[in-house]
Amino acid sequence: MIVRIFLVFLFIHEASLEVTVKGVIGGSVVLPCSGKADQRSIQDITVNWRHNGNRFVYDIIKGNTSDEDQELEYKNRTESFPEVYLKGNFSIRLNNLRETDTGKYSCLITKEYKKEEVKLIVKGHAVISEDKNNHKEDKLEDKKNQGAQTRPEMIVMFLLLISILMFM
């Protein structure tokens, strides 16, 4: 019984830590990834970014970017921030977003045996509109019906309710 409670709370903890980034078609986003801030040498840094587990998005090998194995769909659309590698920041910017960019991105920091995941949602187009007072406002133009969307906090509440009912 204690093991079940532990597993439920472990699952809840993992579900609540998922990072979600939203972007619009044609725009750009930064996918966050951070490791230890005490990197000794740029040569020690190897980081691999993957999309949905197997798509090669971006690689940092021994502190240098490598596009050797990069999938064509990411060529000339990805960039990182080498000036902050030694501070443990391995985030990347993905430009000219496409709807097909939606999915789960993994950042694998080899030396630390660490994996971070980011969920990217891309939809609609950014539209700039002006009101009668000439105030500009960015709006999301999305012509598709999005339907019901699951929010992480709702999943956590549902799991908590189920675990309470299981142990009554």
Please provide a written account of the structure:
This protein is an alpha+beta fold. The chain has one domain: Immunoglobulin-like (Sandwich), CATH 2.60.40. 18% of the residues lie in helices and 37% in strands. It contains 2 helices and 10 strands; from the N terminus they run H-E-E-E-E-E-E-E-E-E-E-H. Strand 3 and strand 4 (55-61) form a beta hairpin. Helix 1 (2-16) runs antiparallel to helix 2. The longest helix is centred in the first third of the chain and has 15 residues, at 2-16. The protein is globular. Mean pLDDT is 78; it is low at 2-16 and 140-150.
> Which parts are unreliable, with pLDDT below 50 for 5 consecutive residues or more?
2-16, 140-150
Q: Average pLDDT, to the nearest integer?
A: 78
Main sheet?
Answer: 7 strands, mixed
Task: Using the alpha-carbon principal axes, give the shape.
Answer: globular
Order of helices and strands: HEEEEEEEEEEH
CATH architecture term: Sandwich
- Distance between termini? 11 Å
Strand fraction: 35-45%
So what's the CATH class?
Answer: Mainly Beta
Short note summarizing the structure:
The chain has 168 residues and is α+β, with helices and mostly antiparallel strands. The protein has helices spanning 2-16, 152-166, and strands spanning 19-25, 29-31, 46-51, 55-61, 64-66, 78-80, 92-94, 103-109, 114-130, 136-141. A hairpin with a 2-residue loop joins β4 and β5 (64-66).
